[in-house]
Amino acid sequence: MPKNFLLHASLLAGLLLGVGCSGSKTTTVNATPAGPTDPPVPAGANVVVQWNSTALQAIRDTKPGPPMTARALAIVHTCMYDAWAAYSPTANGTRYGGSLRRPTEEQLPGRKSKAISYAAYRALVDLYPTNKAKFDQLMTTMGYDPADTSTDRSTPQGIGNVAAAAVLALRHVDGSNQLGDLNPGAGAYADYTGYAPVNPATAVTTPTPISGIPNPGRWQPLTFVNQAGVTVTPKFIAPHWGNVLPFAMASGAQFRPVPPLAWGDPAFKTQIDEAITLQANLTDTQKCIAEYWADGPNSELPPGHFNLFAQYISTRDHHSLDDDAKMFFALTNAIHDAAIACWEAKRYYDYCRPVTAIRAMYNGQTIQGWKGAGLGVGPMDGANWKPFQPDYFPTPPFPEYTSGHSAFSAAGAEVLKRFSGSDTFGASVTIKAQTLHAEPTNPIADVTLTWATFSAAADEAAISRRYGGIHFLDGDVRSRAMGRMCASQAYEKAKSFWEGRAVPMRLEGETLK
């Protein structure tokens, strides 16, 4: 837990009423005006970190897709930031600018904590209503009433509720289809653009005939048996996500990379051969890298992984509440923009995964490949090739180009590097022997992954998907560059808000009162 530097303010100055005798005159000393009371600061880590942990647990519980995860974390932390900004002498909120700012005498740690908590609570209940009981419990533990819906801006709960309501109003019409109203009946976050794959689905555990891949350069759905024992064929998750309102980008296409290598291009075969060779020669360490980064160490998905690293930095650098309100605001919005940019490219190029490309190019030919848990690597028909992944989740259900892991991680590393003033990280994790999901007998011995810098961690996250047979070199490298560009722009915009220079984000014709 980070050291808590938040101080409780004194409640009232002493009442200085006195009577003095000077001849026949009586002198009265006027009472000092009472200052505002400050609620107690909740125990434990500062409330930004506590609510970040709560948001990550909601992600683990509900298992949304990666872009939905990035958006949700950005919403929660933007709501917290806007509530915090009302108690800053200079910062502007993203929706109200400086118009929610409270007087200097109210800019106290307890009030900040309470306002931030109400804002986070409202956002999380909106995003994850099935977890409301858990959010209620945290509010109660902190000493707050979750049923308090006051909009009185002279109170911290009023500030938190008002700030969150404004952010949620914007995000309910941001193109994500959170409310399901853009495709009625299809559910929350459902596609409303009419996407359909050009290839039929193929089963991963049986060979794919060449006739089953009519468009080998394009994305193909996969059929497999999930952990519940049910045969599924997942659809492309969120093909509409390039339409979602970014935080700092001009549009989802602003950083769209050049086209990927085309089927028939000699360089296309080169990247396929590189993927085959890489996976056929994986070391135990590379296998651990592939699995550690797959969806976050505790299944908070790739966009949530760097939030855990941010918590580490909060502890390492002894952050104050103010520090974390700003750092997580910048981090999550950078990753949100990276998700939009990445998914826009995925939809635009609709590019093949290695499992489709390799099965098409080497159909009927013998290649070296991983045969599955306990079977090792050996010769096989290219029509049988599969990635180093558990059979119950062989490849994420969306196109290859560009790589989400590469973009999310590069964006996260760039923000943490800028905010901390250094690329120095210094964290590590140990993968215990015989704990891999794809190959339970491995690693043979414990493997420790260590990252001297944020950049090294991001690069390892990126290459992990190539080790796992999920991505090609081109999609990885170009996505790293895209993630850094998203982060650079988002960080500067976030900074302009906390320095009081940015103008509020408004809907067309909207007036907030």
Please provide a brief summary of the model:
The chain has 513 residues and is mostly helical. It has helices spanning 47-62, 66-85, 109-127, 132-142, 156-171, 266-280, 284-292, 301-316, 321-349, 354-361, 404-420, 454-467, 473-498, and strands at 19-22, 25-28, 202-203, 222-225, 231-232, 366-370, 377-381, 424-431, 447-453.
Q: Name the overall outline.
A: elongated
Please identify the top-level CATH class of the largest domain.
Answer: Mainly Alpha
The end-to-end distance, rounded to whole angstroms, is 39 Å
Largest sheet: 3 strands, mixed
Tell me what you see in this structure.
The structure is a single chain. The protein contains 13 helices and 9 strands. The longest helix is centred in the middle third of the chain and has 29 residues, at 321-349. It is mainly alpha-helical. The protein folds into 2 domains: 47-171, Vanadium-containing Chloroperoxidase, domain 1 (Up-down Bundle); 202-235 and 246-498, Vanadium-containing Chloroperoxidase, domain 2, CATH 1.10.606. The strands form 4 sheets. It has a 3-stranded mixed sheet with strand order 3-4-5, with no helix packed on it. The chain has a two-stranded antiparallel ribbon with strand order 1-2. Mean pLDDT is 92; it is low at 1-33.
List the helices and strands and how they pair.
Blueprint: E1 19-22, E2 25-28, H1 47-62, H2 66-85, H3 109-127, H4 132-142, H5 156-171, E3 202-203, E4 222-225, E5 231-232, H6 266-280, H7 284-292, H8 301-316, H9 321-349, H10 354-361, E6 366-370, E7 377-381, H11 404-420, E8 424-431, E9 447-453, H12 454-467, H13 473-498
Parallel strand pairs: 3-4
Antiparallel strand pairs: 1-2, 4-5, 6-7, 8-9
Helix pairs in contact: 1-2, 1-3, 1-8, 2-3, 2-5, 2-8, 2-9, 3-4, 3-5, 6-10, 7-12, 8-9, 8-11, 9-11, 9-13, 11-12, 11-13, 12-13
